Amino acid sequence: MSTDSAPDVQLEIGHVLFMDVVGYSKLLINDQRELQEQLSEIVRGTNCFRSAEAAGRLIRLPVGDGMALVFFHSPEAPVQCAIEISKALKNAEKAFELARPAFEAQVKEAPDSADRHANLGWCCAFMGRKEDAIREGRRAVELKPESADAFDGAIMNCYLALIYARCGEKDLAIPLIERLLKTPGAVDSVVYSITVNDLKYRWEWAPIRNDLRFQKLVNAKP
Fold this sequence. Notes:
56% of the residues lie in helices and 8% in strands. By secondary structure, the protein is mostly helical. It folds into 2 domains: 15-91, Nucleotide cyclase, GGDEF domain (Alpha-Beta Plaits, 2-Layer Sandwich); 94-219, Tetratricopeptide repeat domain (Serine Threonine Protein Phosphatase 5, Tetratricopeptide repeat), CATH 1.25.40. A 3-stranded antiparallel β-sheet has the order 1-3-2, covered by helices on one side. It is globular and about 60 Å long.
């Protein structure tokens, strides 16, 4: 009988930060590559990334339209890194300026495409171009209303709600969110999801998260 004992297996808990690029799949390959490179540069420039990488306590995973960072030294590390990235993105106007012409060209190519107007509006919202963002979001809803397409029409309204929230239009966003939560047929997507869990945890809703009306929707009992 062998006396060899089974090797000790050491388990560690990883704390994950996921990131994705809005509208990534709509961009041309060269634009996708450039945005990925810019995102990587921003992430690599954060103190959390550099310190964790130097200590060998970080794994970086590509996830198609973004990346995932797995930290092993602290559960607070993903949050701290996200805050650093958020601050850096405030100064990343060039990245949005790079993406916007691509979205505009796609709208020009297919002006009756609701999806393309929605993506352009979402991009403009992140750039702080409030009037352009809302105009494009509303145009998307006009092109694909729920009365004509119950499923995709609801998705266009989800985009519009996100645009309203990003632009600080709480009085427009919250009633729309409330209605979409009651709309038959759950909408569940990486970009435009409107479910209670998404409202609770997705960073995109941060601009209106502290509004009491929003909190009421999030904490409502089923």
